[in-house]
Amino acid sequence: MLALGCDHGGYPLMKEVIQYLEANHIAYKNFGTYSEDSVDYPIYGKAVAGAVAAGECEKGILICGTGIGISITANKVKGIRCALCGDVFSAKATREHNDANILAMGARVTGAGLALEIVKAFLETPFSNDERHIRRINQIED
Ligand code: RB5
């Protein structure tokens, strides 16, 4: 199960992401927001990060205007590795190397076409399980 969260700045892109997930029969839980009315991104960043950290959801996608505020918020939660990505290479690499469990994007930065390619790469790329990457991830939590 994928956890979704966005603020008003991220909402237009989140609608596109949801369409993509539904077209590809990917299950999700949407933590909001549900419109372009102004809200505070930490609420949604914390909700999604909490669900992933608790094991309720396996991965998450967070979107705000830049992706910055919402990714900073998510990364404050223990066990969360939230990667702000604006390109497909980074989305693939952060799964392989960092075992990132949340993808963040900026709706005012990244166009929908590219964003959906980023989502696909993030969801379809497995963690490498290489010893050196496991060691480095463990060091993050130390
Ligand atoms: C909202 O205007 C905007 O500040 C927010 O979406 C995000 O970009 C914050 O980092």
Provide tags for this entry:
about 50% helix, 5 strands, about 15% strand, about 140 residues, binds D-ribose, alpha/beta, globular
Outline the structure in words.
With 142 residues, this protein is an alpha/beta fold. Helices cover 48% and strands 15% of the residues. The protein has helices at residues 11-23, 41-53, 68-74, 88-98, 112-124, 131-141; strands at residues 2-6, 28-30, 59-64, 82-84, 102-106. A five-stranded parallel beta sheet has the order 2-1-3-5-4, sandwiched between helices. α1 (11-23) packs across α5, α2 runs parallel beside α3 and α4 (88-98) packs parallel to α5 (112-124). It is globular. The mean pLDDT is 98. Bound molecules: D-ribose. Residues 7, 9, 41, 64-66, 68-69 line the site of D-ribose (RB5).
